[in-house]
């Protein structure tokens, strides 16, 4: 099943699929999903208001619930409110889907270093019952919308449009331009004729997006909160900005409000710098290449690993890398200077197509909790966090233990 997801495809089918999915991941399309994320954020705040105490809480676990609910709403079109219903089937099956153990770790190593072995033995990455659950859920949602004639502003609706029409229309010229940049290919490089996007293709993309976003986004939210708990000045600066922007927007967390939270944006970027989701990027050479200034020759087909974590924590490029410093990204041309060094979502043609969605999901989660709660260190807090050396994507051992205190906001 997931062999058909964008992350697993290669060659011509990958080029065609990425080009067709690109319009669903533009800023314009993702902005319309902010209300779904914000609604989940409100559910999170209501839960915390009723349950917060002087005891330590695992912010990673709370962020997992927020992320799962938000992805469920934006991608699958379902609203289970896992804060009030933690044992709902979607949450339970989702945890199993992204769960990590030794067996899955060995499969990951094989996928990276021995892809031909994986193809030959046809390894099943996920338990069939898990895949069937999510496929049946998607089919149920699609059938319901078709029967009722109702639509919803989410990824599922965009993928239904792609399935029925063979493409997703851009909203404006800027959207069209961004779509082409995300797709990364000229028309001459794509297959001619009608694009075939079956139910199985749709299921594969939706499940793939869930798996890719679930752990990554929750880890980034919790580690950002940990850094802000330790550095209270940074937290208060972020909260002052959030308070001011929300005041200007009648207390509503909208796409426009989030865009104005520029310091919070720098916090997200610095968290991704210090704790990149993937420790390294894996790429395959498409042609023979001699590394300039050396006698190292890479043959076509060679697998190359780029050590993202090492580069982003190298004092040569990021002075005092252990220090959490959002100011690194307050300069508008920071990304231009850091090209190919700062790659939390990859780079080149295979960079993460869902990076804008993930980024907005993280930012919405942080804006939500910081707007109403002070995050404080406690005796259970472990800092710096202990990072699991073998888990992919990056994850902290033992979660993120902090205290929460409700703010008095005027």
Automatic annotation (TrEMBL):
Cofactor requirements of the protein: heme
Compartment(s): Endoplasmic reticulum membrane; Microsome membrane
SUPFAM superfamilies reported in the protein's UniProt record: Cytochrome P450 (SSF48264)
Gene Ontology cellular-component terms listed: endoplasmic reticulum membrane
InterPro entries: Cyt_P450 (IPR001128), Cyt_P450_CS (IPR017972), Cyt_P450_E_grp-I (IPR002401), Cyt_P450_sf (IPR036396), Insect_CytP450_Detox (IPR050476)
Main subcellular location of this protein, as a coarse class: endoplasmic reticulum
UniProt keywords, alphabetically: Endoplasmic reticulum, Heme, Iron, Membrane, Metal-binding, Microsome, Monooxygenase, Oxidoreductase
Membrane topology field: Peripheral membrane protein
Record has Transport as a keyword: no
Binding positions (heme): 352
Region listing for Disordered, in residue ranges: 167-186
Pfam families according to UniProt: p450
Single GO term (MF): iron ion binding
Family: Belongs to the cytochrome P450 family.
Record-linked PANTHER family: CYP9F3-RELATED (PTHR24292:SF54), CYTOCHROME P450 (PTHR24292)
Protein name: Cytochrome P450
């Amino acid at each position: 099943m997931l062999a058909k997801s964008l992350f697993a495809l290669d060659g011509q089918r990958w080029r065609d699929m990425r080009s067709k999915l690109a319009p669903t991941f533009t800023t314009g399309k993702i902005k319309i999903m902010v209300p779904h994320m914000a609604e989940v954020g409100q559910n999170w705040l209501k839960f915390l208001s009723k349950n917060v105490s002087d005891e330590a809480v695992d912010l990673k676990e709370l962020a997992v619930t927020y992320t799962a609910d938000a992805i469920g709403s934006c991608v699958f079109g379902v609203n289970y409110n896992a804060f009030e219903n933690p044992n709902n089937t979607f949450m339970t099956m989702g945890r199993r889907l992204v769960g990590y153990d030794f067996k899955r770790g060995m499969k990951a190593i094989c996928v990276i270093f021995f892809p031909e072995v994986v193809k030959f033995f046809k390894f099943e990455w996920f338990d069939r019952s898990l895949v069937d659950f999510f496929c049946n859920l998607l089919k149920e949602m699609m059938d319901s919308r078709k029967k009722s004639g109702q639509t919803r502003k989410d990824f599922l609706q965009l993928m239904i449009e792609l399935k029925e029409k063979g493409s997703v229309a851009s909203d404006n010229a800027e959207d069209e331009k961004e779509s082409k940049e995300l797709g990364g290919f000229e028309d001459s490089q794509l297959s001619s004729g009608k694009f075939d996007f079956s139910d199985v293709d749709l299921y594969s993309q939706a499940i793939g997006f869930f798996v890719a976003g679930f752990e990554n986004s929750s880890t980034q939210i919790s580690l950002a909160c940990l850094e802000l708990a330790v550095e209270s000045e940074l937290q208060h600066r972020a909260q002052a900005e959030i308070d001011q922007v929300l005041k200007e927007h009648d207390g509503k967390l909208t796409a426009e409000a989030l865009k104005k939270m520029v310091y919070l944006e720098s916090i997200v970027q610095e968290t991704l710098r210090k704790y990149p989701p993937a420790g390294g990027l894996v790429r395959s050479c498409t042609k023979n290449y001699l590394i300039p200034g050396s006698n190292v020759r890479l043959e076509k087909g060679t697998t190359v690993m780029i050590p993202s974590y090492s580069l982003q924590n190298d004092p040569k490029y990021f002075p005092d890398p252990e220090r959490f410093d959002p100011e690194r990204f307050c300069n508008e041309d920071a990304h231009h200077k850091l090209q190919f060094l700062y790659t939390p979502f990859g780079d080149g043609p295979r960079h993460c197509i869902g990076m804008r969605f993930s980024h907005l999901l993280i930012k919405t989660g942080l804006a939500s909790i910081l707007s109403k709660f002070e995050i404080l260190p406690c005796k259970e807090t472990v800092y710096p966090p202990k990072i699991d050396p073998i888990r992919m994507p990056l994850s902290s051992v033992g979660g993120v233990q902090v205290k929460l205190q409700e703010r008095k906001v005027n």
